[in-house]
Specification:
Blueprint (H helix, E strand, L loop, with lengths): L5 H21 L14 H7 L10 H17 L3 E4 L4 H7 L6 E3 L1 H7 L15 H25 L18 E4 L7 H14 L1 E6 L16 E2 L2 H18 L4 E6 L6 E2 L12 E2 L7 H10 L4 H11 L3 E2 H8 L2 H10 L6 H12 L17 E2 L4 H11 L5 E4 L6 H14 L4 E5 L14 H5 L1 H9 L1 E6 L2 H35 L11 H4 L1 H11 L8
Parallel strand pairs: 1-13, 2-3, 3-4, 4-6, 5-7, 6-11, 11-12, 12-13
Antiparallel strand pairs: 7-10, 8-9
Helix pairs in contact: 1-2, 4-6, 6-7, 7-8, 9-10, 11-13, 12-13, 14-15
The protein binds alpha-methylisocitric acid (MIC).
């Protein structure tokens, strides 16, 4: 064994103690002080290497934090959309101050095997897109500054001066598997430039899109562990990256396991004497019938209820009140059964095994209360809360945010708008409310960051399709008149393009040659 002197050991101990103190001081800064960790600075110091490398995303994360806090104070919001292409991002910078890297969009456009939003692409797909966008932002900032600095002060007022260094918020999906993948993807996202990361409570790979079935969530405890793992990783790195705790429980229909009693209230069971759903579906397939139709018939016959509903259905008001007085958040099914027996004098028929799916999922019925419970649980470790929706219900949105704010008045929220949402009056959307939805969400509910993740797929598709039609029908004549002439005459600045040397980096690369040949390249 290598001999280690006392001097070495003491220096090592001092460096460790210094690191603990530095972490404790860091956690007192305005950006960090609201976070309540379930572990000590000593634990984090012990998980660090002897050198903590500076995290490139931290400056952007602090910028994002200040930006969002300011919006929160003013009742306004930062609006952005999803992007995976640095060229597009360079144009977004002229109107937006943040950019979103969507997992769904990355799944379509950033891997060799495109597909629907299943997060079934390699776990480092989104980090690589973040890397590409982050580096392109840095490059645009560099070439813009070089161009400006080649001009004298008095000539610079009329030059372009965009803030390309837009904080990037990245889709961490469900962490891509186990805890170690969650740690690795967080590390990659923060190292590659993500100023914010969102994590959700979805099960990996179980989204359904066309058969009318809702999403599958993981137990509350698994979700809480994901959030904890991300915060832990960010702390190990000393990263300021913001953590958006997204909850996909709205309209979720399944849960992977009943390991956590906090979920038991929402799991559905059969209250009638029926065969297991899987058996019925397998019999339908074996006899050449539709499994989906067999499922629909089974659901209609099984008397599906939550345990509380099952109790309510078999007792009077007094008995139900007595039952309710015995149960609360986190009361397990076996405790609920005992409380029901005590209140009604009989066992209540309820079997949550019978409706289980082929993948073993349990049937689940969420309410706004479920989402609030999950969101409150992970709020102390995260920076923003986000209840993800399939379609917008204003009443639910209002109830969720107002309940959250009654517990956490300073809380900041994120929200994603869909590409083809209907905004019906029946869901609380008056025309006036729809028109001003983004502003209302910001002012009334503190939703400081709002994204349309799939804007590229609809909004930009529309532009490309129109452009492709024009080019194939009119060729260079059409291009000259409808694109080039318009782009070049745009005021106060030409539209960016390959011929615009400042934007495409022509000036920068020529400046490299000049500098190497010994020329003074500043302010000629
Ligand atoms: C935001 C999202 O995570 C994404 O990948 O962009 C998706 C988008 C969508 O499916 O509409 C999500 O909300 O799950």
């Amino acid at each position: 064994m290598q001999y280690q002197s006392n001097d070495f050991l003491e220096a090592e101990q001092k460096s460790f103690d210094d690191s603990v103190r530095a972490i404790e001081e860091w956690w007192k800064t305005p950006r960090q002080q609201h976070i309540k960790r379930p572990y000590s600075a000593k634990t984090i110091a012990a998980l660090r290497g002897s050198e903590t490398l500076p995290c490139v995303s931290s400056a952007a994360a602090l910028k994002l934090w200040d930006m969002l806090r300011e919006h929160r104070a003013k009742g306004t919001a930062e609006l952005t959309f999803g992007a995976t292409d640095p060229v597009a991002v360079s144009q977004m910078a002229k109107h937006m101050r943040t950019v979103y890297v969507s997992g769904g969009l990355s799944g379509f456009s950033e891997n060799s095997y495109p597909g629907m939003d299943h997060a079934d692409y390699p776990w480092d797909t989104v980090p690589k897109v973040v890397d590409k966008i982050f580096r392109s932002e840095v490059w645009h900032d560099q070439r813009q500054r070089q161009f400006r600095m080649s001009h004298k002060l008095e000539d610079r007022t009329s030059l372009e001066n965009w803030d390309y260094l837009m904080p990037i918020i990245a889709d961490g999906d469900m962490g891509f598997g186990s805890l170690t993948t969650t740690l690795k993807s967080t590390k990659a996202l923060a190292e590659f430039g993500a100023a914010g990361i969102h994590i959700d409570d979805l099960a990996i790979g179980l989204k359904k899109f066309t058969v009318g079935q809702g999403r599958t969530v993981v137990p509350t405890s698994e979700y809480a562990d994901r959030v904890k793992a991300i915060r832990l990783q960010l702390d190990i790195m000393g990263a300021e990256t913001l953590l958006f705790a997204r909850c996909d429980t709205d309209h979720a229909e399944f849960i992977t396991s009943v390991v956590d009693p906090r979920d038991h209230e929402y799991v559905l069971g059969a209250t009638k004497d029926v065969k297991p759903l899987q058996q019925v579906m397998n019999e339908a397939i074996a006899s050449g019938n539709s499994a989906l139709e067999a499922r629909t018939r089974w659901i209609a016959s099984a008397g599906l209820k939550s345990f509380d509903e099952a109790v309510q259905a078999v007792c009077n008001n007094d008995q139900f009140n007595k039952y309710q007085a015995q149960v609360s958040y986190g009361t397990s099914l076996s405790q609920r059964r005992a409380a029901a027996r005590a209140a009604t004098g009989a066992d209540v028929a309820f079997d949550w095994e019978l409706p289980r799916s082929q993948n073993g999922q349990y049937m689940f019925r969420q309410t706004v209360k479920t989402i609030v419970e999950r969101a409150l649980l992970v709020a102390p470790l995260s920076d923003l809360s986000w209840s993800r929706m399939d379609s917008p219900n204003y009443h639910d949105i209002k109830e969720y945010h107002e309940t959250m704010l009654s517990h956490l008045p300073e809380r900041m929220f994120a929200f994603a708008w869909g590409g083809e949402w209907p905004f019906p009056e029946s869901a609380g959307w008056t025309p006036e409310r729809r028109k001003n939805a983004s502003a209302i969400m910001a002012k009334d509910f503190g939703v400081v960051w709002q994204v349309q993740p799939m804007y590229m797929i609809q909004g930009v598709n529309m532009e490309i399709e129109r452009s492709a039609e024009m080019w194939t029908e009119e060729g260079i004549g059409g291009y000259y008149e409808k694109i080039q002439t318009v782009a070049v005459s745009r005021k106060p600045f030409k539209v960016d393009g390959y011929e615009k040397m400042s934007w495409c980096g022509g000036h920068l690369s020529d400046a490299f040659f000049a500098a190497v040949s010994g020329e003074e390249i500043s302010q000629r």
